[in-house]
C-alpha cells in the first residue's frame, strides 16, 4: 500500500504535495518523492526513508512548478532505495502508483527486447515506458493511458504528469482507491479524501476501471471502455475523522472493497516481490526448520482463519497443527509436548481469551508468534514474533478485510515453512508466491459479483435459517460464511463440513432451508457435489459458490450460482470469502439491521 497525490494549480505545489503526503504516510514510508513541471519541464526529487528526508532535500533544492505529483512508498517490487522510489519518469512523463501490476515481468521483457533500459526494479516503471511508447507512436496522453490500462493486470491506482503540459494530470483506478478533489481553478487526485482534506471537501471517487483527465478547470471521467461517465461529488468528512466511508454506505462495505489493496499490502510484508521469495517481516528470525508441531489458537473469525492456516501448514509445509478456540485452549491444560510454536491470530490484538492463551503458552515455555492487525496491541507486544496483517483500521464490527489478510499471511508463512523444512523447492516457492500475487485481482473480480449476490440476498432475507457447506479448504469458509450471516443479519446459520451433512443436519433440509455451498472445482469438488445432490433430492434451495469449471460441469441442476474465475487452490479461501461477506452484507441490508454495529457485539472483546 502506497500513497499517491497530484495537484494542478496556478500556485506553487511542492510544499502542498509534501503536506498531503504527510497525511498519507500511514500507507507506507519506505521512500517518498515528488515531480513537478518547472517552466514546463519535468523535474523530480526523491529520497529514501521517511518523508522528513524528502522534506529536507526539498528545503535544500526547492522544486518550482504549479503542477505536480507525489508518492509515499511501501516497498513491494524492489528494495526501499532512491532508485526504486516514485515518481518514475521517462523524458515524456512521470508516474506514481499504488498497488501491484501482476503481469509486469512479461511487459518488462517485451520492452527490454525493444531496447528500453530500466532504472529501477519496480513494476511501476513498466507502465511509464508503456505509456511513453504510445505517446511516441502519436497517441494523445488520454488515449495512450487508456491503451496501456487495457494491457495491465492487477489491482492498482496510477497518477500521470506529462512533460511540457501544465494543464493536464491523468489518473486511473482498478482495485485500489482514488479520490479526485475539486477546488477553485485547481484539481487534486489522492489515495484518499484525507490527503485532500486541507484543499477541498468536494470529492469524487473513481469507480472500478475508471480513469480521469484533470485540467485546472475540468474533470472528465471515463469508464474502462473509454466512455464518458459521471461520478457524483460528495462532501468528505476527512477533516473530522481519520477514516471515512468514502462513497460506501457502511464501513463493512468499504472494508470489503478495500481487500484487493490491503491483500497486496499484506502480501508485500511476507514476500519480496522482486525476487518472489517469502520472508518473515522485519527480518525476524522465525525459522521453521526445527518446528515439529504448531498449536494454533484464536477466536471467532480469527479461529476460522487459523483453521485455514492448519490446512496450509499441513499441505505446504508438512507440519502437523493443533487448533483450539482460545477460550478452550487457555483452560484445557493440554500437554504441549512436541509443540514448538504457539501461533495466535487476532485482528485487534486485545481479545481476552487469545491473550490469556498466549500467556499460558509462554508459561509453558513455548515460543509464541501472533498474526495481528493492530501493531501496538498487547498481543503484538507480548509475542516473541509479530506477524503483521496490513489490513488498516477495521471499523465494521464484522471482520472482513482482516480475515482475508490473515489468510494471506498464513498462506505465505506456510510456504516459508515449507521452504525452511525443505518440503518446497525454490522453484515451487516462486510458483506459489506468483500465485499469491493474483489474489488482489481475483478479489476485485469477486467484488464485481456484488449485483448478482445482492439479488440472492433478497431471497435469503426472507429465511429464518441457513446452512453453509464446504470441504477441505472450503470447510472453514462455510463456518465463516455462517458466522458473517448470523452476526449481522441475525438469521440463524450453521456451517458444516459437507461430508458431515448426512450425519445429522440433513434432517433439517426442506424447501424452506437455503444451503450455501462453497465448492471451487478442486480435489474435493466431486465429493461436495454428491453431498449437494443429497440436499437437492430433499427439496433444499441451493446457492452454489463455485468457479467457471465448476459451473460448466453442470453438476447441480436448479442451483443458484455465484461463479468466480478458476484459480489455484491456495487462493480459494481468500477469494471465496468475499461472496460470503457480500451475501451477509446485502442480506443484513434487506433486514434493516445495524450492519456496522450489530446488536450485542463489540469490535474488541477484552473480557472473558
Ligand atoms: C466476527 C468477528 C469476531 C472476531 C473475534 C476475535 O466477524 O469479528 O468473531 O473475529 O472477536 O477478534 P480478534 O481477531 O480481534 O481477536
From TrEMBL:
Cell location: Cytoplasm
* Active-site residues annotated for this sequence: 2 (nucleophile), 603 (for fru-6p isomerization activity)
The record's InterPro entries line, in alphabetical order, gives: GATase_2_dom (IPR017932), GFAT (IPR005855), GFAT_N (IPR047084), GlmS/AgaS_SIS (IPR035466), GlmS/FrlB_SIS (IPR035490), Ntn_hydrolases_N (IPR029055), SIS_dom (IPR001347), SIS_dom_sf (IPR046348)
Q: What PROSITE patterns would the database entry show? A: GATASE_TYPE_2, SIS
Q: What class of enzyme is it?
A: transferase
Q: Choose any GO biological process term that the UniProt entry carries and state it.
A: carbohydrate metabolic process
**Entry GO MF terms:** carbohydrate derivative binding; glutamine-fructose-6-phosphate transaminase (isomerizing) activity
What's a GO cellular component annotated to this UniProt protein? cytosol
Any Pfam family the entry gives: SIS
Q: Which reaction does it catalyse?
A: D-fructose 6-phosphate + L-glutamine = D-glucosamine 6-phosphate + L-glutamate
The record's EC number reads 2.6.1.16
SIS domain sequence ranges = 284-423, 452-598
Q: What is this protein called?
A: Glutamine--fructose-6-phosphate aminotransferase [isomerizing]
Q: Which organism is it from?
A: Aurantimonas manganoxydans (strain ATCC BAA-1229 / DSM 21871 / SI85-9A1)
Upper lineage is: Bacteria, Pseudomonadati, Pseudomonadota, Alphaproteobacteria, Hyphomicrobiales
Amino acid at each position: 500500500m502506497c500513497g499517491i497525490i497530484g495537484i494542478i494549480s496556478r500556485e506553487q505545489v511542492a510544499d502542498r504535495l509534501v503536506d498531503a503526503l504527510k497525511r498519507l504516510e500511514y500507507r507506507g514510508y519506505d521512500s517518498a518523492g515528488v515531480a513537478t513541471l518547472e517552466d514546463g519541464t519535468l523535474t523530480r526529487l526523491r529520497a529514501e526513508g521517511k518523508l522528513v528526508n524528502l522534506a529536507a532535500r526539498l528545503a535544500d533544492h526547492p522544486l518550482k512548478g504549479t503542477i505536480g505529483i507525489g508518492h509515499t512508498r511501501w516497498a513491494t517490487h524492489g528494495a526501499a532505495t532512491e532508485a526504486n522510489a516514485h515518481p518514475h519518469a521517462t523524458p515524456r512523463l512521470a508516474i506514481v502508483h499504488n498497488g501491484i501490476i501482476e503481469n509486469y515481468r512479461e511487459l518488462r521483457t517485451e520492452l527490454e527486447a525493444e531496447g528500453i533500459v530500466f532504472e529501477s526494479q519496480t513494476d511501476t516503471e513498466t507502465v511509464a515506458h508503456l505509456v511513453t511508447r504510445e505517446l511516441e507512436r502519436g497517441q494523445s496522453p488520454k488515449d495512450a493511458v487508456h491503451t496501456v490500462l487495457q494491457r495491465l493486470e492487477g489491482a492498482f491506482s496510477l497518477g500521470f504528469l506529462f512533460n511540457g503540459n501544465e494543464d493536464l494530470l491523468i489518473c486511473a483506478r482498478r482495485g485500489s482507491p482514488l479520490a479526485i478533489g475539486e477546488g477553485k481553478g485547481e484539481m487534486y487526485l489522492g489515495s484518499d479524501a484525507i490527503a485532500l482534506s486541507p484543499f477541498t471537501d468536494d470529492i469524487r471517487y473513481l469507480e472500478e476501471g475508471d480513469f480521469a483527465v484533470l485540467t485546472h478547470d475540468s474533470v472528465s471521467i471515463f469508464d474502462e471502455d473509454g466512455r464518458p461517465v459521471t461520478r457524483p461529488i460528495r462532501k468528505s468528512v476527512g477533516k473530522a475523522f481519520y477514516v471515512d466511508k468514502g462513497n460506501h454506505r457502511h464501513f463493512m462495505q468499504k472494508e470489503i472493497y478495500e481487500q484487493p489493496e490491503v491483500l497486496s499490502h499484506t502480501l508485500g510484508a511476507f514476500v519480496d516481490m522482486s525476487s518472489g521469495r517469502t520472508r518473515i517481516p522485519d527480518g525476524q528470525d522465525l525459522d521453521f526448520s526445527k518446528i515439529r508441531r504448531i498449536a494454533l489458537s484464536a477466536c471467532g473469525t480469527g479461529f476460522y482463519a487459523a483453521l485455514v492456516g492448519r490446512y496450509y501448514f499441513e499441505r505446504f509445509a508438512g507440519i502437523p497443527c493443533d487448533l483450539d478456540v482460545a477460550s478452550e485452549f487457555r483452560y484445557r491444560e493440554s500437554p504441549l509436548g512436541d509443540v514448538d510454536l504457539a501461533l495466535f491470530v487476532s485482528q485487534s490484538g486485545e481479545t481476552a481469551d487469545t491473550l490469556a492463551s498466549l500467556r499460558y503458552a509462554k508459561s509453558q515455555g513455548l515460543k509464541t508468534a501472533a498474526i495481528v492487525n493492530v501493531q501496538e496491541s498487547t498481543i503484538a507486544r507480548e509475542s516473541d514474533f509479530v506477524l503483521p496483517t496490513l489490513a488498516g483500521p477495521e471499523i465494521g464490527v464484522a471482520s472482513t478485510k482482516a480475515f482475508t489478510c490473515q489468510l494471506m499471511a498464513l498462506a505465505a508463512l506456510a510456504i516459508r515453512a515449507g521452504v525452511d523444512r525443505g518440503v518446497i523447492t525454490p522453484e515451487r516457492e516462486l510458483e506459489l508466491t506468483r500465485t499469491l500475487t493474483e489474489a488482489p485481482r481475483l478479489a476485485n473480480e469477486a467484488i464485481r459479483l456484488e449485483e448478482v449476490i445482492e439479488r440472492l440476498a433478497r431471497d435469503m432475507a426472507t429465511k429464518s435459517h441457513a446452512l453453509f457447506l464446504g470441504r477441505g479448504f472450503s470447510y472453514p469458509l462455510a463456518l465463516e460464511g455462517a458466522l458473517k450471516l448470523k452476526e449481522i443479519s441475525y438469521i440463524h446459520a450453521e456451517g458444516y463440513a459437507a461430508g458431515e451433512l448426512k450425519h445429522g443436519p440433513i434432517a433439517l433440509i426442506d424447501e424452506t432451508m437455503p444451503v450455501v455451498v462453497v465448492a471451487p472445482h478442486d480435489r474435493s469438488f466431486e465429493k461436495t457435489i454428491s453431498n449437494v445432490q443429497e440436499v437437492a433430492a430433499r427439496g433444499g434451495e441451493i446457492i452454489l459458490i463455485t468457479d467457471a469449471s465448476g459451473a460448466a460441469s453442470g453438476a447441480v441442476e436448479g442451483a443458484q450460482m455465484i461463479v468466480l474465475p478458476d484459480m489455484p487452490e491456495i487462493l480459494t479461501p481468500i477469494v471465496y470469502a468475499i461472496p460470503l461477506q457480500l451475501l451477509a452484507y446485502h442480506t443484513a441490508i434487506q433486514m434493516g439491521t445495524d450492519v456496522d454495529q450489530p446488536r450485542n457485539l463489540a469490535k474488541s472483546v477484552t473480557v472473558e
